[in-house]
Specification:
about 270 residues; alpha/beta; D-Maltodextrin-Binding Protein, domain 2; 2 domains; three-stranded parallel beta sheet; 10 helices; binds glutamic acid
Length: about 270
Amino acid sequence: MRKITLIVAAALCLALALGGAAQAGKLDDIKAKGVLVCGVKDSQVPFGYVDEKTNQIVGFDIDMCKYVADKLGVKLEVKPVTSATRIPMLTQGSVDMVAATMTHKFERDEVIDFSITYFMDGQKLLVKKGGGVNSTADLKGKKVGTAKGSTSEKNIKDAQPEAQVISFENYPQAFLALKQGKVAAVTTDSTILLGIKNSDENPGDWEIVGDFFSAEPYGLGLPENDSKFRDFVNKSLAEMWVSGDYQKIYDKWFGKDTKYYLPLNWKMEIWPF
Ligand code: GLU
């Protein structure tokens, strides 16, 4: 009996040691394999979507990943995630990092870690122009579409408890339901809504309405308890900001010459180097 207990205890110690070593070494792991695997959206213009010409996933979030991969001197591989799969994919180790319009909030921080804020937004509604819905107050007794596993799902329930929330795999599916008249609005972060509206063939048919009813600061999703990797990513983001590269990437996707113009009206938290 005592022997068995000893063997079990030894196995436990070994498992803990190995687990600890694996967790502590994400940065070394990535360097050793020569690739950073990043979980990104693939149907969310302009954050992460398939470029029809090249068939590649491109977007603002992909450029965030590319910057970190370049700093590490490794290649970038992207894997599509949804709002519901991004955290499990990170905890299971099928991606090293998540750049997928993900709000960092304390509830999520219990399972994974986050970088500092790299994008700021808030939640609004996308509706049919002139359809009579102008704010969450107008959604009483109406159906509203959003994505499974998002903060948007929870926020809308708080903002309008009398709406019926229908959750789809992704936002384009929720938009299709709006086009088919199955929901009265789509709700999520305003820039995602702007991406949906302005990449539609008839952008003028749709309207983004109401006040912001949540704050959505985005963080890169990182493995839990790996401070060496987290420090590296945070320093990369800070360097990106200070060097002006962040502004360049931002302008490429959200600048005046794009269909998704959004003035940069917040500042990254920069510690002195
Ligand atoms: N930023 C929100 C979230 O993290 C909504 C966008 C999304 O579903 O990715 O849940």
